[in-house]
Amino acid sequence: YEPGTFGENMVISDLDNRDVAVGDRFLTGDLVLEVTSCRMPCATFAARMADPKFIKRYTAAARPGIYCRVIRGGVVEPGMLVDHRPFAGERVMMPELMETFGRRLSEVDRARYLASPIHYKLRAMVESIR
């Protein structure tokens, strides 16, 4: 696929999103990003790919994109090194988050999710599903 096909704003070479968890941070130059959620495929995305089976294949691959909040802004240029710092708490990995998205969680998993710095919309969804 061409760069930008998946709506990415930043690509980090050699990063496997399956090794990323909510709360992980990425530092480069002055920029600090904190992972808040995974990218879930939607009908609009499938239409753009012109493939009605794309969502199922994307989900089965369990390699979601990641959404981050900006903790500290900065300028990023191609070729800059990026430092990946894992979340210090109990980690909710991107494939797990993708697999459980919108589903009822055990109380243990629900507590894990809510103890991590998840996106406010995802937090509201987790709080509402019992």
Structural description of this entry:
- It comes from Rhizobium leguminosarum.
- GO terms for molecular function: catalytic activity; molybdenum ion binding; pyridoxal phosphate binding.
- Residues 1-85 form the MOSC domain.
- InterPro entries: Benzoxazolinone_Detox_Enz, MoCF_Sase_C, Pyrv_Knase-like_insert_dom_sf.
- This is MOSC domain-containing protein.
- This protein is 31% helix and 17% strand.
- It has helices at residues 43-49, 54-61, 94-100, 107-115, 120-128, and strands at residues 25-28, 31-38, 66-72, 83-85.
- It has a single domain (17-128), classed as PK beta-barrel domain-like (M1 Pyruvate Kinase, Domain 3).
- The mean pLDDT is 86.
- Strand 1 (25-28) and strand 2 form a beta hairpin.
- The chain is α+β, with helices and mostly antiparallel strands.
- The chain has a 4-stranded antiparallel sheet.
- It contains 5 helices and 4 strands, in the order ββααββααα.
